[in-house]
Structures are given as C-alpha cells and as structure tokens.
Amino acid sequence: MPAPGATALHSSLCFSPQKPSFPPPNCQQLNTNLAAKPKSLLQNHPLYTPTHANLSFQIKEKILCLEIMGVDSGKALSQNPSLHSATLESIHSIISFLQSNGIQQKDFPRIFGMCPRILTSNVKTDLIPVFNFLSQYLRVPENRFRVVINKCPRLLASSVRDQLKPALYYLQRIGFKDLEALAYHDSVLLVSSVENTLIPKLKLDHLEIPYTFIL
C-alpha cells in the first residue's frame, strides 16, 4: 500500500480522486493548491533527490508527476521538448479531459509513454476533434472511446484534418467498408501516412484482407 504522503502527492500533482468534469478547475485555484501542498512531500520523495540539483522546483515537480503516472520522464522530456515549458495546470487539463472521456489512470503509462506529445496538446484544437472524429466518422460510442484509444494512442497525436480524414477517405476508396473493424482492430492504418505508407503498401491484390472489410 502506498505511503499516505505519496498518495497525497499523487492526487495533488496529477489526478482528481473523483471522476473529473471538463473544463478543468480554475487555474488560479490550482496554482494555489500546487504551491501549498506538494513542496514538502516532493522534497522527501525518493524520486526527488536523484534529480539534478540545478533543476528548478517546477521541473522536478513535473518529473515526479510523470513518474507517478508510470511514464518514463526522461524519455517523455526527450521526445517532447515542449514538456520543459509546459505547466502542470496544462498537463492537468489534458488528464482531466481524457478522464472525462472514459480514459482511466491505469491507461496513462501506455498512452503517454507511446505518445508524450499528447501531454502538450491543445484540448480544444487537438483532442476534441479526435473524439469527434471517432464518434462521427467511425461511429464509436462514448463508452468505447477507451478501447479505441488504448488500441492506438497515436490517434490522439494525429491531426484530424491532415491525417485521420485523408487516411480514412483513402482506405474507403480502396475498399475498406467495415468501420468497426477499422476502429477497433486496424486503427494503426488511420495514423499511417497515405503517401509514404498506405499508397505504396496497401495493394488489395497483395494483402490478405478479410472479406468483411471489402464490398
């Protein structure tokens, strides 16, 4: 069982104990909570001490938040340099939004581990369009969002306009008709480049595609 301090820090830095609602809490209030609660806990946490002495408290706080979520902070910061300047409030708003759409805390290591860029997404312009795409174009019900996202976290890091829609239109044009199969089993095709991957490789006469996918 985790120590009370670690549990409190986990809640303060990253998560809400209850199912969050969106939009996220007032940023000024969240700033006050973060400033008031985690400092002493953070300094006593075993993950805090080994970090470089010259790192700011905010960076150490961010590193600890990522590690508590089960995300490799070094890999995440390396693959997504924008995380260095991202605020905990912005990360919290993304976490809250994903939870409000059925994503669970235990899913975050896989999702953010595979695509740390999601942690610096814009909820309004990046994430909401993806969920709208799943609902409107692939007919995924809200209670199945989690299944689809866990299958292919890269969906959350893909542009609906520049990637997901063009890929879907191309796949439909060459004969993919089973939207359910595309959403739940072959969603990696939606995040593949049409020009560099799908067009060269998806030739129906060379693929073993189930009959149900095709007219």
Structure description:
This protein has 215 residues and is an all-alpha fold. The chain has a domain at 4-121. The chain contains 12 helices and no strands. It is elongated, with a radius of gyration of 20 Å.
SSE class:
mainly alpha
Topology, number of strands:
0
Number of helices: 12
Radius of gyration: 20 Å
> What order do the SSEs take from the amino end to the carboxyl end, as H and E?
HHHHHHHHHHHH
Oligomer description: single chain
Average pLDDT over all residues = 79
Helix content percent band: 40-55%
Weakly predicted, low-confidence segments:
1-9, 16-49, 211-215
Share of β-strand residues: under 5%
Shape: elongated
CA distance, first residue to last residue: 54 Å
Note the main sheet.
none
Which features does this protein show?
single chain; mainly alpha; elongated; disordered C terminus; transit peptide; MTERF_sf; transcription; transcription termination
